[in-house]
Design a protein that fits this description.
The structure holds 2 protein chains of 2 kinds. Chain A is an alpha+beta fold. Chain A has helices at residues 12-19, 34-39, 76-81, 83-88, 90-97, 102-107, 110-114, 121-124, 163-169, 187-190, 271-277, 284-291, 306-322, and strands at 5-8, 25-28, 47-50, 60-62, 68-71, 173-178, 181-186, 209-215, 223-229, 240-249, 252-261, 268-269. Chain B is α+β, with helices and mostly antiparallel strands. The A-B interface holds A 3, 119, 121-122, 125-127, 138, 141-143, 145, 229, 231-236, 239, 303-304, 306, 309-310, 313-314, 317 and B 77, 139, 640-643, 645, 680-681, 685-687, 689-690, 694-695, 699-700, 702, 704-708, 762-764, 767-768, 771.
């Protein structure tokens, strides 16, 4: 890690001011992500600005219209502990419960969690891979057990967040402040597969800061579930994860959101699976048939074909669990 | 005192060595099974627990000396390359940098254990040192590192074992005929006639089993801190073998052995990978010697994962033949191991096939490939943990083919004799271990519907129960020495040259001495991990520490007691035979009266310290001493996702007398947990195109977490092995890791009704077994 100067700000606006025009300045919140990037020399800021004193960016609030606002500095542990949130959106507690470790969840914030770079071992290792400006994705023909089965970009990495698939299933919006003021975008506008011009999984500009995510009232309607598979029982990124938020009325599926994690560059919403469910009588057979399509279009790599079966099975389980049916 | 020089046989990690031993005097009589012992055999908290948990214990990393330089290595990114040139000028000019070692300024500096240049003209694996920066601070050294400009000429490489052994494969070591690690490999062994045995069989099964590279990941990394005072080189080495490290450092620096002093008072794990000073320790010593300043060089976690060794990954193919009643007629094994780039000692995977089960016809061919990967190093039951898993998985396959209970198949092929050199085992309680562990896990109900399908046949969960056996040495042997001193205050100091790897050696040696000296444990201090005492002990490896050093400590304590009682007899005119030491006091056995504290006598002697020596006697010739055991595992498999949970492990091992049930339990549990990592989660990933490891860190190389660890239940034996040595104890370090992976693999095969052909049993692999036709 290179030496750097450290200072703090007490609002997002101050952070934006500090960031504007200063290419070697980074904002730190929990540090769970930035420090690991700095240790691996993937980030080498000369100035690190601590955003934690901005207290108004922290906390969970419920509006009268039924929407939920989660400040960007809210930690994963706070999400895990918040009983009212767990009642409204149980999927969020399920999503963060198996994320990282208790120590990391105490530090890691919502904003930082969404802004994580991939954990691809070539990206994190000493290889000039495509995401780092190189001309090849080393994982594509290398060790790719943990990589994408959907081919969305020249890079086959996956986004590591457990929170993001759950938030996507809740139709969450991301609130951002930058030099030109505030803007709100859907989560799948923040997280997008990298392109040759933008070789990262996020669209946040270098001088912007996330202030909050909000979930509309409709987003939390019905029941939700998040299921994560790991290759050990704790402290591992998802092999595959599935998030589902399902509203059932009079035995029929009224609304459904189904999202897979760790199968593509960014969390993958399964519109076609949702469409196969909506308007239909909820039965185990219906869900099984819909879930069977979860990996349609997948092109697995040498070491990750197992994700196809896992994606289908977790999709099935997550939908059933969200709908309150025991699988 | 009569001096004798005896030749005896000592086994270390599966190989038998002749050993010449000097005996001064005679060992005491064996503590028999019915010996009445007060301290030995009692659960005793560690005597150094407070130091360890409070941070007072000084590990090699904690050594900080005035003026000390910190060393940081620059390592090859290539699996094989020629180091053409190194430009250090910019790095040398940065603040705090005092020296930079490269192949161009360290001529003749070799690792004496393998004869290789420390900084070679060729780097043979990713992570091999190319240069080492010595600076006032670690940060300064790290800042200088990227300024070193190395010109490499990349060379052809090979990282896969099978590929390395093929004709035309790139040579890891130039000029060799092939990539076998040495002329002694492949090792072949035959007994009887395998072809005939297979022909005579009613049933023949063929199985393959693969194991992955497991990394030791000791929490304390390899390395050391060194200081040269003009005559003596002191090395605070992270080593399991201070005497071995001393010899190695002396040879590397061209010093006499007695000019090198190696210290290892507290250890943060070794597991077999620290049987020497390691290159990092040698570099610290060499630099301290040349620069005249203390130097510390401890590896980072990534360096530890690339250059500190691993358990050899194997591909094993078994052909087993048996009669209809289960009697084995043939074992035919071919195994290939990937041992990395450097010459040295290599483990045999074939030991279980040769020894575990009764079989007249055995053939084993054990290939050891040299590849462009950092070299393997011994890892807790090296070869045997892998080989036992492969053999016992094959045995279960045979049992299925015979439609026979797998445990019954083991019982049927139990042997009371050592088959490699026909001799009886001294003791063998394995059948009892099978029975007691089977009872505990409920073997009889393993096929019950309700147990196998906890959510019914339509649910996705399947449970299974499996088992595997264990054979290992653990006999230990000479030479091992100890000194017992009784001090003027009536307390004792025990000095040995062994090291406490974290297993509780200090505690059990204190218990043995306290037993014989009639002292409370708090009055016995154990000093170890110093070559300066001049009390030789063997390496702490091969499960031989207690069974080698324990008897030496006991003899020293007995001799010290004898001298003490003679002195007290002179002081009191009481007959020596009537005197007894108990609870730190002197008693007259005839009158039953307490005659005062031990200190009240020894304090009269004007500072005189009673010093007695003890040594470990020879091993028996006529019998083979072994530890035996078995483990049983119950698992739950989710057949929808491939996820395996290990629910229970029953561990039944006979390691002779248990000196301390607490430290014994820790040993067994630690072994099971490490075996569980091998079976379930641990795997190094190599990119074969690049020849590099992609997961040299504790995030991507997955050791088990506390959530992965099931209930571990011990079946205790605690029976003195009266043939083995005077304390009746055998080693418990390696036995518990040997059967774990096989037991889990067999339990998974039982659960899913499909063969298990490799470990670790991560979900992707299990889904693969489930989809195998």
């Amino acid at each position: 890690m290179r030496p750097f100067e450290h200072s703090s700000v007490s609002s997002a606006a101050e952070a934006v001011t500090a960031l504007s025009g200063a290419k070697t300045t980074a904002v730190i919140a929990g540090g769970a992500e930035l420090l690991s990037l700095m240790k691996a020399n993937l980030a080498a800021p000369t100035h690190v600005i601590d955003l934690k004193p901005a207290r108004d960016l922290r906390g969970i609030a419920f509006a009268d219209d039924g929407s939920v606002r989660i400040g960007a500095l809210t930690t994963l542990a706070e999400i895990e502990r918040d009983g009212a949130l767990a009642e409204r959106a149980p999927i969020l507690r399920e999503a963060v419960r198996d994320a990282a470790t208790p120590q990391l969840r105490n530090m890691a914030t919502v904003g930082g969690n969404l802004m994580q770079r991939t954990r691809c071992w070539y990206f994190r290792g000493p290889y000039t891979c495509w995401q780092k400006g190189g001309d090849q994705c080393y994982a594509r023909g290398g060790q790719n057990k943990y990589h994408a089965i959907f081919d969305d970009s020249p890079c086959v990495s996956v986004h590591p967040s457990d929170l993001a698939p759950a938030l996507l299933a809740l139709d969450a919006a991301v609130h951002i402040v930058g030099p030109h003021g505030e803007r709100s975008i859907a989560l799948d506008e923040l997280l997008k597969p990298p392109t040759p011009e933008r070789r990262r999984e996020t669209t946040l500009a270098a001088d912007e800061v996330i202030t909050a995510v909000t979930i509309p009232a409709q987003g939390v309607s019905g029941g939700g579930a998040y299921i994560k598979m790991m290759d050990r029982q704790a402290w591992a990124y998802a092999l595959v994860s599935a998030a589902a938020q399902v509203t059932v009325r009079d035995g029929k599926v009224e609304r459904a959101r189904v999202v897979l994690g760790a199968v593509s560059n960014t969390p993958r919403r399964l519109h076609h699976v949702e469409q196969a469910l909506v308007g239909q009588q909820l039965t185990a057979e219906l869900v099984a048939q819909a879930a069977q399509q979860a990996a349609d279009g997948a092109t697995p790599l040498e070491h990750n074909a197992y994700k196809v079966q896992m994606a289908r099975e977790l999709t099935r389980r997550a939908i059933l669990q969200a709908a309150g049916v025991e699988w | 005192m009569p001096i004798r020089v005896i030749t005896t046989k000592v086994e270390f990690e599966g190989q038998v060595y002749e050993q010449r031993v000097v005996m001064e005097g005679d060992e005491p009589a064996v503590w028999g099974a019915d010996a009445d012992l007060r301290v030995v055999g009692k659960s005793t908290p560690r005597v150094d627990g407070r130091e360890r948990v409070s941070g007072a214990a000084q590990y090699s990393y904690d050594v900080n000396l005035p003026g000390m330089l910190t060393a940081v290595g620059l390592r090859s990114p290539h699996p094989h390359a020629r180091v053409v040139s190194i430009d250090v000028s910019r790095a040398e000019a940065t603040p705090g940098v005092r020296a930079i070692l490269t192949r161009f300024n360290t001529e003749g500096f070799k690792n004496p254990n393998n004869g290789m240049d420390i900084f070679g003209e060729e780097v043979l694996f990713q992570g091999q040192e190319v240069a080492v920066v010595l600076a006032d601070t670690r940060q300064q050294a790290l800042e200088a590192l990227p300024l070193i400009n190395v010109t490499y000429e990349p060379l052809p490489f090979v990282v896969d074992a099978e590929a390395a052994l093929k004709d035309g494969a790139p040579r890891v070591k130039p000029g060799t005929q092939d990539n076998s690690v040495s002329d002694e490999w492949p090792q072949t062994y035959t007994r009887g006639d395998v072809e005939r045995g297979l022909a005579e069989a009613d049933v023949v099964v063929e199985t393959t089993f693969t194991t992955e590279a497991n990394l030791h990941n000791s929490l304390e990394t390899h390395g050391g801190a060194a200081q040269w005072d003009g005559h003596t080189l002191t090395l605070w080495s992270s080593t399991q073998d201070i005497y071995g490290a001393r010899k190695q450092v002396a040879a590397a620096l061209n010093l006499q052995q007695n000019q090198v002093h190696v210290i290892k008072r507290y250890m943060g794990g070794g597991f077999g990978s620290k049987l020497g000073a390691h290159n990092a320790g040698l570099i610290a010593a060499w630099a301290a010697h040349r620069l005249g300043r203390p130097v510390k060089y401890m590896l980072s976690r990534e360096e530890e994962n690339l250059a500190a060794g691993y358990r050899t990954p194997t591909a094993q193919t078994y052909k087993l033949g048996a009669k209809r009643d289960g009697t084995l007629t043939a074992i035919d094994l071919k195994t290939v191991g990937n041992n990395g780039a450097l010459p040295g000692w290599f483990p045999s995977v074939a030991i279980p096939a040769k020894e575990m089960y009764l079989c007249p016809n055995v053939r084993t061919v054990d290939y050891a490939a040299r590849t462009n990967i950092g070299s393997m190093s011994a890892f807790r039951a090296p070869g045997v943990a892998e080989g036992m898993a492969g053999l016992d998985v094959a045995m279960d396959t045979l049992a299925r083919a015979l439609n026979m209970d797998p445990l019954e198949l083991r019982r049927k092929n139990n042997t009371t004799r050592y088959q490699i050199v026909d001799k009886p085992y001294a003791t063998k309680t394995l059948l009892e271990a099978y029975d007691r562990a089977a009872e505990r896990i409920g073997w009889a109900t393993r096929d019950d519907e309700a147990r196998r399908y906890p959510r019914g046949r339509n649910g996705s969960l399947r449970r299974g129960v499996g088992m595997a056996s264990q054979v290992w040495g653990g006999e230990g042997g000479p030479p091992a020495q100890a000194i017992a001193k009784l001090l003027p205050d009536g307390s004792a100091v025990i000095m040995t040259g062994t090291q406490d790897l974290g297993t509780g050696t200090r505690t059990v040696l204190a218990q043995i001495a306290a037993e014989e000296l009639g002292l409370p444990l708090t009055s016995v201090r154990v000093e170890l991990g110093e070559t300066e005492f001049g009390v030789f002990s063997p390496p702490s490896g091969g499960s031989m520490t207690l069974s080698s050093v324990g008897p030496a400590v006991r003899m020293a304590a007995v001799e010290a007691r004898r001298e003490t009682l003679e002195i007290i007899s002179h002081l009191t005119e009481a007959p020596v035979d009537a005197l007894e030491l108990r609870d730190g006091a002197v008693f007259n056995r005839e009158t039953g009266k307490e005659m005062g504290t031990l200190g009240s006598y020894l304090g009269q002697l004007d500072g005189h310290e009673i010093t007695a020596r003890g040594m470990r006697g020879p091993n028996p010739d006529d019998v083979v001493v072994r530890t035996f055991g078995a483990q049983f595992a119950e698992v739950e498999v989710d057949i929808g996702t491939g996820q395996v949970r290990v629910l229970r492990i029953i561990a039944a091992h006979d390691c002779g007398r248990i000196v301390n049930p607490l430290t014994y339990s820790s040993q067994i549990e630690g072994g099971v947990i490490q075996g569980l990592g091998m079976a379930m989660t641990e795997q190094r990933f190599i990119d074969e195109r690049l020849g590099v490891s992609v997961n040299p860190n504790l995030g991507d190389y997955k050791v088990p977490t506390i959530r992965d660890i099931p209930e571990i239940e011990l079946v205790m034996f605690d029976r003195a092995n009266e043939y083995a040595n005077t304390i009746g104890s055998l080693g418990a370090g390696e036995p518990p890791i040997i059967p774990t992976a096989g037991a889990i693999a067999n339990a998974v095969a039982h659960a899913i009704g499909r063969p298990v052909t490799g470990i670790p049993l991560t979900p992707d692999r299990v889904l693969g077994f489930l989809s195998d036709k």
